[in-house]
Each structure stands twice: as C-alpha cells, then as structure tokens.
Amino acid sequence: MKTKVLMSLVVVAMLLASVGVAAAAPMAAPAQIDRPNMVVGQVKSISGATLTIARGQGPELQVVTDAQTRFLAKDNANLTLSDIQVGDSITARGQWQNGQLLARQVLLMPDRAGGMVTAINGTTLAITKLDGSALSVATTSTTKFQTKDNPNAQFSDIKVGDMIEAVGTLNGSTLTAIRVNFRTPIEKTGPFAPGKISAVNSDSLTLNIGFGRELTVNVSSSTFIVKRDGQGGQVIQLSDLTVGENVLVIGVRSSDGSSMDAKTIIAGKQGPLGNAPQGGQPRAGDAPVGPQG
Prior knowledge:
Blueprint: H1 2-24, E1 38-47, E2 50-55, E3 58-64, E4 70-72, E5 89-97, E6 100-109, E7 111-121, E8 124-128, E9 134-138, E10 144-146, E11 163-171, E12 174-183, E13 192-200, E14 204-210, E15 213-218, E16 224-227, E17 234-235, E18 246-253, E19 259-267
Parallel strand pairs: 3-6, 4-6, 9-12, 10-12, 15-19, 16-19
Antiparallel strand pairs: 1-2, 1-5, 2-3, 5-6, 7-8, 7-11, 8-9, 11-12, 13-14, 13-18, 14-15, 16-17, 18-19
C-alpha cells in the first residue's frame, strides 16, 4: 500500500513539473518590440540622446530621445535625460523608426529588491536575496510599510525571518526604501523540497533552497532516484547526481526542518525547478511571495 502511495506521489509530482515547465516556457517575443510602441528594460549604455536597453533574454533595443521627449519619475517632476543612469529601469513609449523607438515619454522605474530579513539594525533591514547575496534596506520616516492584510503596517511589525519586497533607490549595496511589503512565511513541514544541489556525499545531498539556506537530504538504499529526460526519465544512482543540478525531494522532514529523509528524488534539466531554486520571487505591488520556511 505504501509503495502504491509513494509511486502515486512521484507520478503527480512529475506531471505537475511537466505542466509547470510547459506553462512557463515563454513564447517567442517579437524581434523589435515588447508591446506596440513600448520598450521596457534596463539601461545598458547611454550615447548622447540614445539609450541602449537590455531586456532580459530578448535582444537589446535603442531608444532615441529628443527635445519633445518627456521624462517622468514618481518622485521627480523635473526629470531630464541627464538624470537617467546606466542600470536604471525604464519604460519608454513612442514610435518605431528604422528599428529604433523614438521616445515621446520615458518613465524612470524605482529600484526593487526582495529577500529574507536576517537582521534588524535600527531602521535598516539586512536581507538575503534569493541568490544568497546580501543587501541592506534603509528606511526613513516617510517609508510606507504594508502587508496583504494591513496597508498601514509599521516598521516594528517586521521580524527576522520575514520575506520583504522593497521599492526605492539603490546605491551600491543599500536600497533606501519608499515602500516595504512584507509577510511572515508559514514554515514548510510537508514532504516536498525543491532545491539546487550544492554538495553530493556518499549517503546524502546538500540542497540550496534559496535565500542562503541549505537542507541536508539523507539518502538510503531504498531511496528511489529518477532523472527526467526527453524520453520521460530513467532510474539513476546517488553518484549520478551533480552539483548545480535542480531536484525535487519527496520525503520526511526532521522536527527542526534542517534535514529530510528522502523517499524519492526527481532530477533533470527540465525538472520542476527550472533554472533556480523555487521559493518564489517577491511580486511587485503585493506582499512578497517567498519560500514557506
């Protein structure tokens, strides 16, 4: 009976992973535009009145400005081209001419950062981002704090371990926030643990589960390990797993949540984790969605 239940969990997990990968696969973006007459991205370089915009995996585009271009920012009614810097995020609207966007409006977007609070020093939050890097979030008397259920939250409501998303101005390793969304995650005690392998030992794995945290996965002779591939999957051994590989572990967690006895491990480049440990990146404009633990 236990074997049937376990195999059912494996099948469900693989089906969910396949559906998630298919749903997440982006459609081919137009070569020239994000939306009609709009470019959204990060300023990579500035040459005179022309901005070169990087757009993630898409091709770089050029945004041309002139005397008729209006520059806008939420906190600066007198923004000009000289205020735009390399690394800034912008939204530009205008008309396409010879493969370039002649901008009639350039909106400077505020900087954003999300992560887990690791320390609170005065009015500054020390956070660890999803990739494990550190950042300081400085708050002021005008910073607004909110949760999904409380739009009038206070700085004092934030605790170590909370997930936050801060919006403001980034300067080096410090973001001065105009708004901080936060929530206290619910500790994950369930049987599923996605992550990226950071170490492979003779009878265990170490998983990076995001935000600088690790999980020890104990592997026994009865642990079922499968690697997904184009043919559906194949049974492998612990020694076949490699550092940097994404896996989904199904098993029983320890009482303190620091380790898991693995019943099943599902691995593969097209596995349930995509290209990074799951845990959820905080969403703009809402209480951040972080790992449940």
